[in-house]
Amino acid sequence: MEYKRILLKLSGEALMGTQQYGIDPKRLSDYAGEIKSIVEMKVQVGIVIGGGNIFRGLQGAGEGMDRVQGDYMGMLATTINSLALQGALEKSGVKTKILSGLSIEPIAEAMSRRAANDYLEEGKVVIISGGTGNPYFTTDSASALRAIEIQADVLLKGTRVDGVYSADPEIYPEAKKFDTITFDEAYSKRLKIMDLTAFTLCKENNMPILVFDMNIIGNLRKIISGEKIGTIVKN
């Protein structure tokens, strides 16, 4: 088995499926099935999910809303998604625990490294909502921080693209896909893998990032089994 403990970063937008906003029940069920498949392999799973299907703080700020207020709204959106994912996982028989960067009892316990590690050791999927609990940080940054805190073997960034390319493959079909790339190379090529804060956190703490297509059923299990899926970014 390639990885024993992972932090899975999911985008909120991915939960929309074919909808324009909100949560697509089928996509949610598919993700729960994927996660369950690796829990059954005895992998310890932490998850951070974005809130872009409900609200984006930066977008709100661009439309004249106070940035701090918008970011807190975004953190609440991640909590809604976390609750939805928890419901889907529990329905499929997977035990879960939601921790939060925001104080939001009785929905979620406060995030702490010790609590997260204890629940992971118990075999529960730990969903960490509420971002970092602070404005001006994205869920990319939150996922990098949480991956480092729980000492994950890898940060798995589930996207709708099957890896990192030299340019956007949806716009430039001739773009080249990388199987492996270093943080420095990705930075020098200005590849937008994660925001700069998240990227720097991972680089400085030697946390590899694996970018892959989460929407292909079976990919998550293949990664855990050691198959070469997606792109690995490392020092």
Topology:
Layout: E1 5-10, H1 25-39, E2 44-49, H2 57-62, H3 67-91, E3 96-100, E4 109-110, H4 113-121, E5 125-129, H5 139-149, E6 154-159, E7 164-165, E8 177-178, E9 180-182, H6 183-188, H7 196-204, E10 209-213, H8 219-224, E11 231-234
Parallel strand pairs: 1-2, 1-6, 2-5, 3-4, 3-5, 6-10, 9-11
Antiparallel strand pairs: 7-8, 10-11
CATH class: Alpha Beta
Task: Summarize the helix and strand pattern as letters.
Answer: EHEHHEEHEHEEEEHHEHE
* CATH architecture descriptor: 3-Layer(aba) Sandwich
- Assembly form of the protein: single chain
Q: List the total number of helices.
A: 8
CATH superfamily: Acetylglutamate kinase-like
How far is it from the N-terminal to the C-terminal residue, by CA? 22 Å
Biggest β-sheet description: 9 strands, mixed
- Give the strand tally: 11
Supply Rg. Answer: 17 Å
Shape category: globular
Instruction: Identify low-pLDDT runs.
Output: none
- Mean pLDDT over all positions: 93
Measured by DSSP, the beta-strand proportion falls in 15-25%
Domains counted in the coordinates: how many? Answer: 1
Q: Helices and strands: which structural class?
A: alpha/beta
List keywords for this structure.
11 strands; alpha/beta; single chain; 235 residues; 9-stranded mixed β-sheet; Carbamate kinase
